[in-house]
Amino acid sequence: MSFQSRYRFTAAWLPDGWRRNVVVSVDPAGDIVDVAPEDVVTTARLVNGAAIPGMPNVHSHAFQRSMAGLVERRSPQAERGDSFWTWRETMYEHASRMSPECLNAVAAQCYADMLKAGYTAVCEFHYLHNQPDGTPYAQSAAMSQALIDAATTAGIGLTLLPTLYQTSDFGGAEPTQRQRQFVLATDRYLDLIDELTRAHAQSPQIEIGIALHSLRAVPPDALRTVLTSLPSIKTIHIHIAEQEREVTASQQHLHARPIEWLLEHARVDKRWCLVHATHATLAELKAVAATGAVIALCPTTEANLGDGVFPLPAWLAAGGTFAIGSDSHISVSPTEELRWLEYEARLMTKHRNVLATQNQTSTGAMLWQQACSAGTRAAARKIGAIEVGRRADIVVIDNSSPLFAGRDEDTLMDTFVFAGTGREVRDVMVAGRWLVQEGRHSAETAIAVNYKRAMNKILE
Ligand SMILES: [Zn+2]
């Protein structure tokens, strides 16, 4: 007991609401072992500020941070306008410049930025398995290891999702030259999952899940083999219906929309996370809600790519739950993702406070709470609440900042989510370790030096 660390937060957001003078005890393994509200007796280190649970970021392609801001100029060959598909060409170009060293440096910077913004865990949807020409690395897990090392350097909790990618389109179309970097045969993929799962079975900060890139990139046979070979995997992610062209192609080749096909051919359950269910019908949403699967929304990326707007009010009405991801990392801010969700709903319905509920009337609190709770499921880790038995992943908001003047805890999350500039996140603890203090990440100087060196190489 004497090895525990104890912190007294002037305010903390617990599962049953805001409480004052909350003492949180953390064991040396990084788990919360006691939460005592209104405690003024216990000796504990005082942390002035409002403690909230850290946010899981459930959809990340860390390497894409290297191209943020470089694809916002009209391309000369885009006669019919730029689109997701023209953006993808630049993305492939950046992918082809990623060595394990570059990927490690870019991911470490991206993860440190996430921590400073209030994300304390990330699900990395990882498909850069091979060398750019498609040749496997001598160490088959070299690129996975680069990401694991980056998460360790930054200190963020990681759910690594090695991603199966085999075809360039529906109907078994051969991968293009560029896509060979992403391709693994099914047996090699299963070997990689096995190797990583064994290596990290005892790491509380690392979980190994799986991802199926999309129905475009994973043929039905491979999908079936992987799912039947890994019955006890804890989380399964898939890009499901991001682009209208993808839905049409699915109807042509599989005679069903992607979500329809998936529900017919896989036993979708609570372990599943459907990323970008952007183009879903109401019937599909109801059917997915019945499975308990999480839908991951990445509104800043979906907007940046011109994907379309997900019908979130209808999904919530069907009983569905959502998590958030920063995906391409055009923005690395949970508050920006969350406010976009509400603003999309307001623009669609011409109402305000659309996503708040009778039980949770604060829109900001509803958004943070739901994304934390569904994000925890998608990450398959014990995070997402300030509660005994969870990892001690805590974000401290500087409620002495002028932004919060005259406000109490009841309006804190609304003010933070809708009016915050991002600088309100003052301290961040992950698994009991303070990684961000006074807005600075403990390793940010070294991480930035490596990142700049890598970017010079990538953009050479
Ligand atoms: Zn994605």
Your description of this structure?
- There is one protein chain.
- This protein has helices at residues 84-95, 100-117, 142-154, 186-199, 220-229, 244-254, 258-265, 282-291, 299-304, 312-317, 334-349, 363-379, 412-419, 444-458, and strands at residues 5-14, 17-26, 32-36, 45-53, 55-60, 119-126, 157-164, 206-208, 210-212, 236-239, 272-275, 294-297, 321-324, 394-397, 425-430, 433-437, 440-441.
- The strands form two sheets. Strands 5, 6, 7, 8, 9, 10, 11, 12 and 13 form a nine-stranded parallel beta sheet that branches. It has an eight-stranded mixed beta sheet with strand order 3-2-1-4-14-15-16-17, with helices on one face.
- It has 460 residues and is of the alpha/beta class.
- The chain has 14 helices and 17 strands.
- The protein is globular and about 65 Å long.
- The chain has two domains: 5-52 and 386-445, Urease, subunit C, domain 1; 55-379, Alpha-Beta Barrel (TIM Barrel), CATH 3.20.20.
- The model has no long low-confidence stretch (mean pLDDT 96).
- Zinc ion is lined by residues 59, 61, 125, 239, 275, 327.
Chart the SSEs and their pairings:
Layout: E1 5-14, E2 17-26, E3 32-36, E4 45-53, E5 55-60, H1 84-95, H2 100-117, E6 119-126, H3 142-154, E7 157-164, H4 186-199, E8 206-208, E9 210-212, H5 220-229, E10 236-239, H6 244-254, H7 258-265, E11 272-275, H8 282-291, E12 294-297, H9 299-304, H10 312-317, E13 321-324, H11 334-349, H12 363-379, E14 394-397, H13 412-419, E15 425-430, E16 433-437, E17 440-441, H14 444-458
Parallel strand pairs: 1-4, 5-6, 6-7, 7-8, 7-9, 9-10, 10-11, 11-12, 12-13
Antiparallel strand pairs: 1-2, 2-3, 4-14, 14-15, 15-16, 16-17
The site of zinc ion (ZN) has 6 residues, from loops.
